[in-house]
Amino acid sequence: MRHGYVLGIDAGGSKTHALIADLEGRVVGWGQSGPGNWEGVGLDGAAAAYAQAVDAALEVAGISRDALIAAGYALAGLDWESDHDRLTPVVTRLGVPGPFILVNDAFGALRAGSADGCGVVVIVGTGSTVAGRNRRGDTFRTFGLGMVWGDFHGATGLVWEATRAIGHAWIGRGPATALTDAFVQAYGAAGLLDLVERVSRGAAPHPDGRLAPLIFATADAGDEVACRIVRQAGEDLGQTAAAVVRKLGLGAEPFDLVLAGGVFRSRNTLLIETLASQVRLESPAVRVVLLEAPPVAGSVLLAFDAAGLPTPPALRERLLAEAHHRFDMLQRGIPQ
Amino acid sequence: MRHGYVLGIDAGGSKTHALIADLEGRVVGWGQSGPGNWEGVGLDGAAAAYAQAVDAALEVAGISRDALIAAGYALAGLDWESDHDRLTPVVTRLGVPGPFILVNDAFGALRAGSADGCGVVVIVGTGSTVAGRNRRGDTFRTFGLGMVWGDFHGATGLVWEATRAIGHAWIGRGPATALTDAFVQAYGAAGLLDLVERVSRGAAPHPDGRLAPLIFATADAGDEVACRIVRQAGEDLGQTAAAVVRKLGLGAEPFDLVLAGGVFRSRNTLLIETLASQVRLESPAVRVVLLEAPPVAGSVLLAFDAAGLPTPPALRERLLAEAHHRFDMLQRGIPQ
């Protein structure tokens, strides 16, 4: 049996995670640093963020770099063919021995959430991205570049639909909605006109994705307009996922539909059910998986893949559970 | 009979127009200066832009300020109650004698395009605004603050719908569309991926409202997706206009539906007919007017109103035609 450890990195626009596991999937080290998307912080900034997270994880694990035998890198900003040449030297300079796999961060989340590494992942945070991989290894990914190129209904898009509905209610074009009061209260404003005046004059911040939970709460309380917005988001995201299913010919057998990203932490049934039902139209046997673990666990699984090591279900489940626990504590600032 | 001249100012985000007419509606002076929306250039900047345009118009007219007897000011950035107190001193400092009327610029366009000053105006440029006035003098205006608060389907929104449709075609979620090639060619790109990579990496500008004419051209050439986008814009704008009709109780008698702003310069029949048909559902006898004259002609008509002088049809028509001619030449840089 082989000895050593594997490393995973998940680098995003707001933070970078590193995770080290032994070859049975036990988590032994973890680390976190700042933004790791080179598009935002430059190649040197990304390299520094990766290195800082790796060093922290090595320190927690109490092992040297030489004990690592493989790595999986799931990096935001790895979007185009040309980015492979750009980012390969950056990860190579980390000095991690052994083979590695380098993918866009969406595929780390897919690897974490899907039992066999295949299927479709719908990531909904501030923005949204849908990515998939079939059993032949073909992959496909939507642009994930914000609302412009078709990836609508991240938190930003949801909030925009809400402000649009609030505007339509105000002009008497759409039905009155409890979203109006919810937004007015969230701003501590005297009323809608006060809210809009303050926003338009820069005295209050523009409504952004942080208000998305308000929409779910208002929908849960029974507001028809909020329900319509949530349902519409589910249909839109589900239709994109169904298109990716078709692109990859995934529909014939059951596959995992992984839901990842901050917006699903609401666990909103209406959103999830509407989304899933769109995909079921394409593929009735789809299994819906809500990803609880941090996507960096998927990067560790990719490191196993790189090393040619199997990841049986017990190993994967242990890894996901331990990673979830560790990063949950890290997120909440609890000393470990 | 009274003697003297009246002054109109139309101040917008990109330029300020001034127009002087005699009491029979003959245009005698015209002037143009830079941005006049105080939200962008500050109160002093706006004051300077107004003054520069007025001075230019007085010089062309060859008259002194004392020959003016009334003024109409239609000002972008006059959005809230508090703005009246803010902008009244600014226009007062221009030193124009006599009474004046101060309104949001949307009402200048309405006064220009509507035979009796009542009705609804749909202004579609980069963004969109809908405003109305009934025969009792009640007014209503949508926020006109960009896409967020319900005013969708300005040129920016149209282009966004196009890029969204292009993205959906690429992932196989929506039908193929000639918009893809049209946008690729407009960017001189090698293909869609090249276009998106360049935009996402800052090597090419983000698609913006300047591409809206491409959508109309693609629709006119028979592309179904482009037609759907144009139809949807017409429905959306028409539904907002119908809501304003209801707000003001305008539907009982015929009224003018004035279409103003750069997007209507396309004279796209599909857009205009779809928009009008939504308003006709509310009010079958509506008269659709495409505003050819610059909105500053409406400011001059407001000056007549301020002076208590009638504006019979012949006077109004002469004023609109002459103003159109003068500002058309000014726009094209032709010495007059």
Describe the structure in your own words.
The structure is a homodimer of 336-residue chains. With 336 residues, chain A is α/β, with parallel strands linked by helices. The first copy, chain A, has a domain at 5-114 and 292-331: 2-Layer Sandwich (Nucleotidyltransferase, domain 5), CATH 3.30.420.40. Chain A has helices at 38-61, 81-92, 105-113, 155-170, 178-187, 192-200, 212-220, 224-248, 269-282, 296-307, 313-331; strands at residues 5-11, 16-22, 27-33, 68-75, 100-104, 119-124, 128-133, 139-141, 256-260, 287-290. Chain A has a five-stranded mixed β-sheet with strand order 3-2-1-4-5, sandwiched between helices. A five-stranded mixed β-sheet of chain A has the order 8-7-6-9-10, with helices on both faces. The longest helix of chain A has 25 residues, at 224-248. The interface between A and B is large, with 40 and 40 residues.
Which CATH C-level class of the domain at 5-114 and 292-331 in chain A is it? Alpha Beta
Q: What structural class do the secondary elements of chain A suggest?
A: alpha/beta
Largest interface: A-B, 40 and 40 residues
Poorly predicted regions of chain A are none
Helix and strand run of chain A: EEEHEHEHEEEHHHHHEHEHH
The major pleated sheet of chain A works out as:
5 strands, mixed
In angstroms, what separates the terminal alpha carbons of chain A?
30 Å
Anisotropy-based shape of chain A:
globular
Q: Rg of chain A to the nearest angstrom?
A: 21 Å
Strand-residue fraction of chain A?
15-25%
Overall CATH architecture of the domain at 5-114 and 292-331 in chain A? 2-Layer Sandwich
- Helix fraction of chain A, binned, reads 40-55%
CATH-wise, what's the superfamily of the domain at 5-114 and 292-331 in chain A? ATPase, nucleotide binding domain
Instruction: Write out the strand line-up for the largest beta sheet of chain A, numbering strands in chain order.
Output: 3-2-1-4-5
In the CATH hierarchy, the third-tier topology of the domain at 5-114 and 292-331 in chain A is known as Nucleotidyltransferase, domain 5
